[in-house]
Write a structure and sequence with these properties.
The two termini are about 25 Å apart. The protein is globular. Helix 2 runs antiparallel to helix 8, helix 2 packs antiparallel against helix 12 and helix 4 runs antiparallel to helix 5. By secondary structure, the chain is mainly α. It has a two-stranded antiparallel sheet with strand order 1-2. The protein is about 75% helix and about 0% strand.
């Protein structure tokens, strides 16, 4: 393999490695401490989940500016259900119901975005900008303009939970196998993510354990990679982003695929809103501001082309 090709394929990983080295030197090794990596990954997990959905959107040549507001609205739904509706009294089942409500609302709003964009052919920028304002307004209305907290201990295992060594091995076996299946023909491409996953997991285990929030991010990344690399839906997403007219004449159901992409984005936003509320033990109608820009930046830095 030529050096130029290698650098083009793995430039992001090499850049990340150099950045980690520089920051580690500047912090005298504190950056790579188990405690710092744990906190860093817990903070970045929510943005990483949003970036998974935004990858699909950008690959189709679209944009979604509403996800920060949908995150806030989904979080308010969790707060209202836990505090006002008394879901916290039902323990784990109440927490699960709150999370499912947030995910369902996010999926519904994403489907509305996708329907207006794909079937009515309105520009994604216009529709998602409008949804950004609407969702933020609804979050302020439902919350009364104030934060909702605390939400009890039923959501604590999601936000503050850690997996033991045996649990980590059990839960990471499937993602590791999936990564191998996706990249089995590109061993060098698989080396960087698998090595990073192994090193970070070892670092987690020397502190409190593997954080549950990071587990949500890991499964979102692996599932997104599998869909894009192995399913016909992923091929259709690439085809639409490359040339929408050619994809249409090749038999790709362009409208349905674009609708599904924005629906998926809404699902990830709803999940992120629930996780954010669990992590903060409260819901803030002003949460999620500029999350859409962070997600877009993560996607572009990761190698997706605008």
């Amino acid at each position: 393999m030529k050096v130029e090709t290698y650098l083009k394929r793995n430039g992001a990983w090499i850049g990340l490695f150099l950045l980690v080295v520089i920051v580690t030197v500047l912090t005298e090794g504190a950056f790579l401490s188990a405690r710092n990596l744990t906190n860093l990954f817990r903070q970045a997990s929510i943005n990483g989940i949003l970036a998974c959905g935004m990858t699909f959107v950008i690959l189709t040549g679209g944009i979604d500016l509403s996800i920060g507001s949908i995150v806030a609205l989904a979080g308010i739904v969790v707060g209202v259900s836990q505090v006002t509706w008394g879901f916290h009294e039902h323990g784990a089942l109440g927490a699960l119901a709150s999370v499912l409500l947030a995910m369902g609302l996010g999926t519904l709003l994403g489907a509305l975005n996708g329907g207006l964009i794909s079937f009515l052919r309105i520009a994604p920028f216009v529709i998602t900008l409008g949804m950004m304002v609407v969702a933020r307004g609804l979050a302020l209305i439902f919350s009364g303009g104030a934060s909702i907290s605390p939400m009890g201990e039923s959501l604590a295992p999601i936000s503050d939970g850690y997996l033991s060594f045996s649990q980590t091995i059990f839960f990471l076996a499937l993602p590791a196998f999936a990564l191998f299946r996706v990249f089995r023909k590109r061993a060098m491409a698989a080396f960087f993510p698998v090595a990073l996953l192994a090193l970070v997991s070892f670092s987690f285990l020397t502190y409190k354990g593997f954080p549950v929030l990071a587990l949500f991010l890991l499964f979102s990344l692996v599932l997104s990679a599998l869909v894009l690399a192995r399913l016909s839906f992923g091929r259709a997403v690439y085809a639409i982003g490359s040339n929408e007219k050619a994809a249409y004449w090749a038999g790709v159901p362009v409208k349905k695929v674009k609708w599904a992409v924005y629906t998926l984005m809404g699902f990830f936003a709803g999940l992120s809103g629930a996780l954010l509320s669990a992590r903060l033990n409260g819901a803030d109608p002003n949460a999620g501001q500029l999350f859409e820009l962070d997600a877009i930046a993560a996607v572009v830095i990761g190698g997706s082309s605008l």
